[in-house]
From TrEMBL:
Record: active site: E409
Signal sequence, start to end: 1-17
Transmembrane segments: none
Protein name: Peptidase M14 domain-containing protein
Family matches, as SUPFAM superfamilies: Protease propeptides/inhibitors, Zn-dependent exopeptidases
CDD domains the record matches: M14_CP_A-B_like
Annotated family: Belongs to the peptidase M14 family.
GO cellular component term of the entry, any: extracellular space
């Protein structure tokens, strides 16, 4: 019965949904939900009326930014009024905001090229294309021929459009512990891949300057662009594209012409908030509950036709599951909001070791703050933001068994009083360097703390033995 009820609801939603992407006019609005009914209404807008929620946060009495497709704007505003939600229009010219950001980036590119003679620094001037990122990795690898065994480059597999997902390993050959970081799961979050590139550059500087203290302990694996298909599409066609580019041919027996799966809802650990019930020894049924992931292919948070359905998801899982590597930490970089988040995302309860996760996040974010004064909020995903099942972070901890797992939501802040909050996903390229700088320092301090706590643990073990 549950299943048929859910099916009816999905098909009903679909009839409203059609093709709501960023094409034509959109209106950016702010709402503040005051009741649980308001939260449910916002989820309905997202799932059925093509609303794109920009704020990761979805909580009572918090500002929520949503982009409304023009065709649905008056209907949504009417519903808000009916249910007592105040709507403030923040921007009714999103194309203008994208243009403003692009203009600042263009000026920055000209200035940076004039002022720097270092050809390796071109990644600071503008957001690179996929091809440029591939070239950048290759150049970084070749920077110091005598130290080439400190780095290696390999592909973890291909995307739907057959692009390789490149990964770089940086570390001394004797390093035995492993760290994994990825960027660019969500296509439109351009500041994320640029931050991974910045960190790659700096870690390789350490190798070149013969200061590989961290790198003699850790091999650091960085995937600068996990969703290259979506990223290319966002760079060339629709700036606000979020998902991958896989078609959704099968949709509960119907054909959907909406493209793309939200990769960060596709990972198969409590996918779609699935809850398993064992009825007898042989029969297990599951129901899907709505928690931050959608069953509608036209939604921005579409979780895919089944768990782990996407090649990008599977490729990351293969890397994490390789038994030869035991991972100390996994960090996945998104934007925006300035949050350093630990699991779980699928439910509001905490992992058993959450205090350790929280302490380490504090060490990282405090070091980050010392660079430019940027403040991050720390907490579990479901408690700080809202339940969102199917994330790579939950899978890395729940299935991959990695202890220290974090989602880092980079700048800008989602506080509307923040001077740069209005840029949201369109942070101009002037931010590549400051965001990269502070994040690199925060991550390094976090890694150092992993070394220290391991030393302390082995010391106390030895003391106990003696
Ligand atoms: Zn994201």
């Amino acid at each position: 019965m549950w299943k048929s009820m859910i099916m009816c609801w999905i098909l009903l939603s679909y009839s409203y949904a059609n093709n709501h992407f960023y094409k034509g006019s959109h209106e950016l609005v702010r709402v503040v939900p005051k009741t649980n009914e308001h939260l449910q209404l916002i989820r309905y807008f997202e799932d059925s009326l093509g609303v794109d929620r920009w704020s990761e946060v979805l909580q009572l009495n918090r500002d929520i930014k949503m982009s409304l497709p023009q065709a649905q704007a008056s209907k949504i505003k009417k519903l808000c009024k009916q249910y007592g939600i105040d709507v403030t229009v923040l921007n009714n010219d999103l194309d203008g905001l994208i243009k403003k950001s692009d203009d600042i980036s263009k000026q920055h590119k000209i200035r940076t090229r004039r002022s720097t003679k270092d050809k390796n620094s071109y990644h600071l001037a503008d957001y690179l294309t996929y091809e440029q990122i591939v070239r950048f990795l290759d150049e970084q690898h070749k920077r110091s021929p005598s130290l080439q065994n400190f780095t290696s480059i390999f592909s973890i597999g291909n995307t739907y459009e057959n692009r390789s997902i490149w990964t770089i390993r940086i570390g001394k050959p004797s390093a035995r512990r492993n760290i994994l970081m990825d960027c660019g799961i969500h296509a439109r979050e351009f500041i994320s891949p640029s931050t991974c590139l910045y960190m790659i550059d700096k870690f390789i500087d350490e190798v070149n300057n013969r200061r590989p203290s961290i790198l003699s302990i850790f091999n650091i694996y960085i995937i600068p662009l996990l969703n290259p298909d979506g990223y290319e599409y966002a760079q060339t066609q629709r700036r606000m594209w979020r998902k991958n580019r896989a078609p959704n041919n099968y949709y509960y027996g119907a054909y959907s012409n909406c493209i793309g799966v939200d990769l960060n809802r596709n990972f198969g650990y409590h996918w779609m908030g699935e809850i398993f019930f064992s009825i007898s020894c042989t029969v297990t049924v599951f129901i899907l509950v709505e928690n931050g992931a959608s069953a509608n292919p036209c939604s921005e948070t579409y979780a895919g036709p089944k768990p782990d359905s996407e090649s990008e998801t599977q490729n990351l899982q293969k890397l994490i599951s390789q038994s030869s590597r035991n991972w100390d930490a996994y960090l996945t970089f998104h934007s925006y909001g300035q949050y350093w988040i630990y699991p779980w995302g699928f439910a509001s309860y905490m992992p058993d070791d959450y205090i350790e996760l929280k302490n380490k996040a504090e060490i990282g974010s405090e070091a980050l703050k010392r660079v430019n004064g940027t403040s991050y909020k720390i907490g579990s995903a479901a408690n700080l933001l809202y339940e969102s099942a199917g994330g790579s972070d939950d899978w890395a901890k729940g299935v991959g068994q990695i202890k220290y797992v974090y989602t880092v939501e980079l700048r800008p802040s989602d506080d509307l009083n923040d001077a740069h909050a209005h840029f949201a996903f369109m942070l101009p390229s002037t931010f590549i360097e400051p965001v990269g700088q502070e994040t690199y320092v925060g991550v390094k301090e976090f890694l150092r703390s992993l070394i220290t706590s391991r030393r302390q643990k082995s010391l106390s073990k030895n003391n106990y033995k003696s």
